[in-house]
Amino acid sequence: MFTSAYLGVNLLDNLSFKTNLGMNLTSTREGLYAGSQTNFRNGAQPLARYIAGNSVGLNLENILNYNFNVNKHSFVLTGVHSVLTNHFESSTAEGANQLINSQLYYGLANANSQVSIGASLKESALISYTGRLLYNYNDKYLMTLTARTDGASQLSEGNKWAFFPSASLAWRVSQEDFLKDNGTISDLKVRVSYGIAGNSAVEPYSTQSVLNRVPFAWDESAAIGYTYAPRIGNSDLKWETSTTTNFGVDFGLLNNRITGTVDVFTTTTKDLLLERLLPLSSGALSTIENVGETENKGIELGLNAIAVDKKNFKWNVGVNWFKVNEKIVRLATASNDVANGWFIGETTQSYYDYEKLGIWQSNEVDAAKAFGQNVGDIKVKDQNGDGKIDATNDRVILGSGRPSWIGNLNNDIKFHNFDLNLQLFARWGQMVRYAFTGVYDPQANENSLIHNYWTPENPSNDFPRPNASKSQSATLYYSSLFYKDGSFFKLRGATLGYTLPKSLVSKINASNIRVYISGRNLWTYSKIEDYDPERGGNFTNPMTKVFVGGVNVDF
User: Fold this and answer.
1) Which pLDDT belongs to residue 167?
2) What gap in Å lies between CA 326 and CA 398, rounded to an integer?
3) pLDDT for res 473
């Protein structure tokens, strides 16, 4: 249930106060009973489980706003106090060998084996104070100054609070006398901004190491032990901060028939909050850390145009193009963190592995043997040319999950009573780890998926030869099969509609009737056959084609 309320009061002519209150309430209840002969239990004792949980999310904002004018000077002062809290609790009960199936999970108290109970609580809070000044001189010169401080409960003692200032300046050049009556340039604004933003999005209690209960058998009797959870706490967690400098231009041409924006920006993010894998010698698997610093430099272009503006034919075009160069500048360790896939000078999502050249062919018997392999095995590149392949010297950065650029083209066309919308989208220059190659079966059993295996009659460079012996060379460098060029161009959406003539709809006392059909993810071009790479390589949750038809009727 989502609830919201507000109260607004005009304290003076130019002074107002407003309170916004929002509350989200969630209740969850789940019961499971699996009998002995179900697929889930497969002959084992029946299992009963009951889970109940509820959560409360509260968002409170208090806003004080004051505005005044002095001649051509306009001022707006705003103060904001906000509180965001989340509370989630749950309880679980489970037991096996409940003898009466008809009781389902309601008879869980009758279970006499593997009985366990559990309860959990998760709370977090964010408190913010913000002050802002908007200044406008004669609608030509604009300035915004903002000061914000935030406190997050998930972070460590002494690091919960941080200060985030920002400032922006703008000059509406088109309001100057030398451009005011220009027939070509109808609008022109130049702007620059600088600001710091923060991120505290980590799970509550990430600063703490949680104990897990471990059952033991000791001298034929049960004993209880405890160990740390696989992810240990970090008592030094602090805010992740991003500093951005942006230079932009907004323009309009030919009485704003053509409008557009250009933004060039640089963002430096320090103390990134990421989960870091730990060496096995630590006794744990991972921890949340402020791991280092990244730099993003990019450009964003936007263009909208009224291509055709006739009585019975209108065509509007919108184009957006976005490019960002991301790189890691610094890590918590002095060098690259190979275990987590983080490399200085590369993106935060880099693929580091052996470079697959193809498959050893029939005329490369001796060359394959020199690397301890056979014809039909996966061939990877010897990066340093020392005649052997090893993990330290022969793995390289193959690519990145970050695209080189992203583009979007939107068309709105109206011809007489017909309307058509086309959305084209492209993400280019990215690499994906394609999950479908993970189902490759070296034995090529009868019920395996179809792959382009190497055989003497089919000298493929895609998949190594079938090998029922499961020899080591058959699966050597198996991970190099995963990486694919994930660039794609697609028709993301299309809608075709027809509005019935007024003379026809008036006969049923309607003011407007429109019939339409629309589709999503209709067509995709990529180098991966029969797959839409927008999902990033996984196929457990694929992009689906969706078709919708409908009628809109207004009375």
Assistant:
1) 98
2) 16
3) 65
Any residues with CB less than 8 A from the CB of 447 and at least 6 apart, and which? none
Could you give the count of Cα atoms lying within 13 Å of 500 in the half-sphere of its Cβ? 16
Q: How many CB atoms lie within 10 A of CB 310?
A: 9
Distance CA 273, CA 206 (A): 11
Report the alpha-carbon distance of residue 462 to residue 479 in Å, rounded: 13
The whole-angstrom separation of Cα 176 and Cα 190 is: 13
DSSP-derived secondary structure for 125-151: EEEEEEEEEEEEETTTEEEEEEEEEEE
In single-letter form, the type of residue at position 276 comes to R
Residue numbers of the chain with a pLDDT score lower than 50: none
* Residue 245 bridge partners (DSSP): 194, 266
Between the CA of residue 454 and those of 257, 374, 377, 442, 486, what are the distances in Å? 58, 12, 9, 11, 24
**CA dist., res. 318 & res. 302, Å (int):** 8
Distance (Å, rounded) from C-alpha 266 to C-alpha 298?
7
Both tokens assigned to 496? 């075709």
First and final CA of the chain: distance in angstroms?
A: 32
Strands 286-290 and 231-232: parallel
CA dihedral 229, 232, 233, 234 (to 10 degrees): 180
Q: How far is CA 398 from CA 151, 199, 280, 352, in A?
A: 40, 30, 26, 6
Give the pLDDT confidence of 72-125 residue by residue, as tens digits. 999 999 999 999 999 999 999 999 998 889 999 999 999 988 888 999 999 999
Place of tokens 């630590």: 282
What whole-number distance in Å separates Cα of residue 84 and Cα of residue 101?
Answer: 45
